[in-house]
Specification:
- The protein is an alpha+beta fold.
- The protein has two domains: about 1-75; about 85-210, no CATH class.
- Helix content is about 40%, strand content about 15%.
- The protein has a four-stranded antiparallel sheet, with helices on one face.
- Helix 1 (about 1-20) runs antiparallel to helix 3 (about 45-75).
- The chain is rod-shaped, with a radius of gyration of 31 Å.
- The two termini are about 40 Å apart.
Length: about 220
């Protein structure tokens, strides 16, 4: 991309330079007039020469704009998206993660938490550095990231240290560039004990997005 931008930039500078600093009338008399026995009647009008200069400058400016666009896509001017763009991507990711009534989604490994593998690809853009969803741990001492019904009831000690039951609803919070994405997951009814034992349940998903850090 950068190589193409440099190539186009050379032509952009050349076109602008020819349009501004080279007299097309002199070029015509030097290279075209010798082909005619009587060149005066064949000489283009002053307006024609002027439009040629305008066309060259316009083409050079157009190529210059394309060069800037290519350099932006290559990430030369910025290393990451602005906050408004990140917020828009987070909202789109949250909307795509949600499920309709009666429909569910398996956990999506590959990133942080249960849904990071789903969220991160939807935060990507043309920038050099993509935003990444970071799981916010609800309880550092519990060794888990689940916010189950039991944890919300305030259990502590040995009860809080037990592995959360996959059949319980849970909440995970992800922070992306100072934006908090909360994912509420509720297991769908009627699933087998075997699926619960191997943590292969389907969950109904709802989300909340707040333009502030997770607290």
């Amino acid at each position: 991309m950068i190589g193409a931008a440099v190539f186009a930039g050379v032509f952009a500078v050349a076109f602008v330079a020819f349009g501004l600093f080279v007299d097309p009338r002199k070029l015509w008399w030097r290279f075209r007039a010798p082909h005619f026995d009587n060149p005066e009647p064949h000489e283009p009008s002053a307006a024609s020469f002027m439009w040629r200069r305008v066309a060259l400058v316009a083409l050079g400016l157009f190529l210059g704009w394309q060069v800037i666009s290519m350099l932006r896509l290559a990430g030369v001017f910025e290393t990451g998206p602005d906050h408004a763009e990140v917020l828009d991507r987070v909202e789109n990711a949250a909307l795509n993660l949600e499920t309709e009534d009666g429909q569910g989604r398996h956990k999506w490994p590959g990133g942080e938490g249960s849904w990071g593998g789903f969220i991160d690809p939807r935060l990507k853009g043309p920038e050099r550095e993509d935003p990444v969803a970071t799981l916010v741990k609800e309880n550092e001492d519990s060794g888990g990231d689940w916010d189950s019904e039991a944890s919300r009831e305030g259990l502590s000690g040995s009860e809080a240290d037990t592995e959360p039951d996959p059949k319980d609803p849970f909440v995970e919070r992800y922070e992306i560039d100072g934006i908090c994405l909360t994912v509420h997951a509720v297991p769908l009814p009627g699933q087998s004990e075997r699926d619960a034992a191997i943590d292969n349940l389907m969950y109904g998903i709802t989300t909340d997005v707040v333009d502030s850090p997770c607290t």
